[in-house]
Design brief:
The structure holds three protein chains of three kinds. Chain A folds into three domains: about 1-75; about 90-135; about 135-205, no CATH class. Helix content of chain A is about 80%, strand content about 0%. Chain A has helices at about 1-25, 30-65, 70-90, 105-135, 140-155, 160-165, 170-205; strands at about 95-100, 100. Among the domains of chain C are: about 45-160, Immunoglobulins (Immunoglobulin-like), CATH 2.60.40; about 200-375, Rossmann fold (3-Layer(aba) Sandwich). The relative contact order of chain C is 0.10. Classes of the chains: A mainly alpha, B alpha/beta, C alpha/beta.
């Protein structure tokens, strides 16, 4: 059991890790083919894994409904929405429209999913404003610099800002292209080095905590 | 011992108890719903009463426009609509403007999406603009639909477009479509634009597409993502970037067909200014509070 | 008469001069035309070979520059069946001014360059009406064209093939392997020596956050981000979850981990279980502490926001990679008064986390978190390796900028030898 839970996954990780790291340097179509096949396997495994997820979701909400926990009505809504969408999706063969006529699935997509998703994303604008009001304070010199930069960029990105302060457009472009790009590159270099180091540790079995279980 | 549970438990907002606080402190802890109301009004009023402020064209948007403008008739443009309805307000006008430009230039358009939840919307966009400009599916354009795998689809298209998409969205076999004549894989396309709201999107098309199969590409994204894609633009990895609603409005101005984005720019202008005013007010209160505290301590 | 005669003589002299001028001019034009025509020579030293370091289906043609290369003179590249002997019968696959398409235009390094930078180079690939197949020979010729005149080079036969190594990426491989060596050396070093680790306030606050949740009798909410386990940030988030779960188990505080990806959920379930075992509280472990919501971005966000507002967790952890949902999550969390600790490598979302969370682990600090929390030499050694790597990059950036400037100012080629070592070549 220990072999199946510990050694085997590490061996698989080592072999596939080295193979796919090496794949990057091999331009031969066979190597590309291997990458495509592996990604397809991952999709298939991912498909089966979805069963795990859906089971967890159904179980969690079934327990809530069974015990009539606080807010169990939301769980009921989830069941109805999910099963209803699956039913109309199967009925319409996954098509939103057939010969120009909207199917029931199309109706769910256009009149439920589109506005609901749009609403969630639109909330962002309100949250940005409230977060900015609460946090954007010139507590220190650095914070003041940030504040001024933010105001310039916000002005420079809209026609009214450019109309009121004509220089703000060019200044905001400069801030985005020069200051912002260089800082992001610096962060990216750090992130990339960290990711490469973590990848090496995983490939060579130095980092194992993601497998669950502690030290052997 | 639990009491009877409520069917829908109330979602209450966290409201701090206001005890003895100065005016400045109270203003700093203002109920955020007031801020929401201000932003709501600043968005709604300009949409109802548009002003139509002039829009300055940026070099990054011009990059995409100029490249499409330079393409010969019949060149292939792949348009990947990698977004879902959530990002519709920003990326929908970009897609419409790009398609209008491409169809006017008589380019062969190959549209697809890497986001399953955006398939229906992408199809609507492409069909709507094609109909508007009298273009014929299969001959002037094709919508390939969605294929599972995200970045794997890009790699697959790089090897063989027909194995990644054996049929188009309507179910017609892609092999033999006149619009795909001479196109075997991504190496054969002239230009690609990915309008991405996240991953997979512009970055994935660069890393797994352009980098491997060497074609020219441009990008479009939501406003919040644009600063993150500037390094790609500066290093020449993409030759242009349409950022958010502003980018869409610039593109609409460039093709001289003003639409939803230009109309939305007034609302965006008003909200930006509202946020700036809010930030200034918040800082005024903050400094007045600090001053009061230092006087109190003194 | 005299005047008349004089007049005649004067006219004669003028016309003679005019005639002379015309003859000279015409001779000049003819001479220059003849000179130009004499410049149209067949392309010299033509080489045709399989394009190296590629996936096949392409041939490369190189030839020496001619002294008369100018925009008026054009080159044509012609391809056809290997059996063709007459270059006239080949298909033109490319035509361009003779002062374009040089080796220097192609992104290659000195160790893979097969001709001088001033030579012409064209890559032949499959196009409309032409298919280049691997292991099939093709006849290739280059022609110089001016007006109606066309001069061909000799015919060359070559076949394309797929290659097993991209030599342009040799520098990338060496740098990667060197970095791996460096990391493992640093790990070994850390096993034998004490290494200083700077404080990361966000991680110091983990205990405080869990302690506060315990005091208030409220749960802890832990998110692992938008990506699946192929992303290092999710793995880092899963590793940190182990540490957080262990402390939560010790303090007997409820832990909730909503997921966007089923495989990550399964792995995190294992990690949490092990953490409870290690803490000596296996009986407190609940299978449904890790649960799946949906893979859809905003549906997940709405669900987690709902959990935050209903259950009011005292501590929220946002580890891993995030997109536009970041602010929607953290702003809602902030409104419930929870302590919020974020850690992300999503540079585009950092401003939102910094604004709304109490502590934020920026970029690679997320990867460093497991080292900081465990204090294991292996982890700390990795950090040391990363730091040395970063120092090397800084030096390369500085020296590279100086060398590139020297190269541009002096026109010298030698700085390019060093710069090529660090170029991203495909």
């Amino acid at each position: 059991m220990i072999f199946l839970r510990r050694q085997l996954p590490i061996i698989i990780t080592l072999i596939t890790g080295l193979l796919f790291a090496g794949q990057y340097y091999v331009p031969h179509p066979a190597s590309e083919q291997m990458l495509t096949s592996a990604t397809k396997w991952m999709q298939i495994i991912g498909g089966f894994a979805l069963i795990l997820g859906v089971t967890s979701l159904f179980h969690q909400h079934a327990v809530k409904i069974g015990r009539q926990e606080a807010g169990w009505g939301y769980s009921l809504v989830l069941y109805v929405a999910m099963l209803g969408t699956i039913a109309v999706g199967l009925w319409a063969n996954g098509k939103e429209s057939v010969d120009g006529a909207m199917t029931a699935f199309g109706w769910v997509y256009n009149f439920m999913m589109v506005p609901l998703q749009g609403t969630m994303f639109a909330i962002l604008a309100f949250f940005i404003a409230s977060a900015a009001y609460r946090s954007f304070r010139a507590r220190s010199r650095e914070a003041a610099v940030l504040l001024v930069a933010a105001v310039i960029v916000m002005m420079g990105r809209v026609p009214l800002g450019e109309y009121l302060i004509p220089l703000s457009g060019d200044l905001s472009s400069w801030i985005l292209n020069v200051l912002n790009s260089s800082v992001r590159r610096a962060i990216l270099i750090g992130v990339s080095l960290g990711a490469i180091a973590l990848s090496f540790k995983i490939i060579f079995g130095v980092e194992r905590s993601y497998l669950g279980g502690g030290k052997e | 011992m639990r009491g009877p549970a409520r069917l829908f438990s109330p979602i209450t907002d966290h409201v701090s108890l206001i005890t003895v606080m100065s005016f400045a402190e109270r203003m700093l802890k203002i109920d955020r719903r007031i801020i929401f109301l201000v932003i709501g009004l600043c968005t709604l009023l300009p949409l109802l009463y548009p002003v139509g402020l002039p829009i300055k064209i940026s070099s990054e948007v011009r990059g995409v426009y100029d490249h499409i403008e330079s393409l010969p008739e019949g060149a292939t443009l792949v348009l990947s609509l990698d977004f879902d309805p959530a990002s519709k307000p920003e990326l929908y006008p970009q897609a419409i403007a790009l398609l209008r430009h491409a169809f006017k230039k008589n380019l062969r358009v190959i549209a697809l999406t890497l986001w399953v939840s955006g398939t229906g919307m992408a199809e609507q966009i492409v069909t709507q603009v094609a109909k508007e400009l009298g273009k014929e599916t299969g001959k002037d354009y094709t919508f390939l639909g969605w294929s599972p795998g995200g970045q794997a689809v890009i790699i697959n298209m790089g090897q063989d477009l027909y194995s990644a998409f054996p049929s188009d969205y309507s179910g017609k076999p892609t092999k033999g479509l006149p619009v795909l004549e001479g196109v075997r894989n991504l190496k054969d396309i002239t230009y690609l634009v990915s309008l991405g709201a996240g991953r997979p999107g512009v970055e994935e098309w660069y890393v797994f597409g352009k980098d491997k199969y060497k074609f020219e590409m441009g990008g479009g994204c939501t406003g919040v993502m644009a600063p993150g894609l500037y390094p790609l633009l500066r290093s020449g990895q993409i030759n242009g970037l349409i950022g958010g609603l502003r980018g869409a409005a610039e593109y609409e101005s460039l093709i001289d067909q003003k639409g939803k984005a230009v109309a939305g720019m007034d609302a965006q202008s008003a909200t930006h200014v509202a946020i700036i005013v809010l930030v200034i007010i918040c800082n005024l209160f903050y400094f007045s509070m600090r001053q009061q505290k230092s006087v109190g301590q003194g | 008469m005299k005047r008349e005669a004089y007049g005649v003589k004067r006219w004669d002299a003028c016309s003679a001069c005019w005639l002379l001028f015309m003859i000279v001019s015409m001779m000049g034009v003819l001479a220059s035309q003849a000179l130009a025509e004499s410049l149209i020579t067949a392309p010299q030293d033509v080489r045709v070979f399989d394009t190296p370091s590629d996936s096949g289906e392409s041939l490369t043609v190189q030839w020496a520059p001619a002294p008369g290369d100018s925009p008026d003179i054009r080159y044509q590249v012609l391809v056809g069946d290997a059996a063709t002997t007459d270059p006239q019968k080949l298909t033109v696959v490319g035509e361009f001014p003779s002062n374009s398409k040089y080796v220097r235009d192609v992104k290659t390094a000195w160790w893979t360059r097969t001709a001088e930078k001033t030579w012409h180079q064209v890559m032949i690939k499959s196009a409309k009406g032409l298919e280049i197949k691997n292991d099939q020979p093709y006849a290739v010729a280059v022609a110089t064209v001016q007006g109606d005149q066309r001069v061909f080079s000799s015919l060359h036969v070559a076949a394309s093939s797929a290659n097993w190594f991209n030599w342009n990426q040799l520098n990338n491989l060496i740098i990667g392997l060197s970095f791996a060596g460096l990391v493992f050396y640093a790990i070994n070093y850390a096993k034998r020596h004490e290494i200083f680790l700077r404080r990361i306030p966000g991680l110091d606050a983990v205990d405080e956050a869990i302690g506060r949740a315990t005091e208030l009798g409220k749960p802890i909410l832990y998110l692992t981000g938008a990506h699946d386990l192929h992303d290092p940030s999710t793995i880092a988030a899963a590793v940190i979850l182990g540490k957080v779960a262990k402390r939560a188990a010790l303090y007997e505080t409820e832990l909730m981990v909503p997921h966007r990806e089923p495989i990550t959920m399964a792995v995190c379930q294992e990690i949490t279980k092990q953490a409870y075992l290690e803490a000596g509280k296996p009986d407190l472990f609940k299978d449904d502490a890790n649960f799946f919501i949906t893979s859809d971005q905003f549906s997940y966000t709405a669900a987690v926001d709902g959990i935050m507002l209903r259950k009011k967790p005292a501590a929220n952890f946002f580890m891993g990679h995030y997109f536009a949902e970041s602010l929607l999550l953290t702003e809602t969390g902030a409104s419930t008064g929870a302590i919020q600790i974020a850690g992300t490598d999503a540079d585009h979302q950092l401003p939102f986390f910094v604004t709304t969370c109490d502590y934020t682990l920026i970029g690679e600090e997320l990867y460093a978190a497991s080292a900081y929390l465990s204090k294991e030499p292996v982890q700390i050694g990795t950090l040391r390796g990363q730091d040395i790597g970063k120092a090397v990059i800084l030096v390369v950036l500085g020296v590279g900028a100086v060398l590139a400037t020297v190269g541009v100012v002096t026109g010298a080629q030698w700085p390019q030898l060093a710069l090529d070592l660090f170029r991203d070549l495909k």
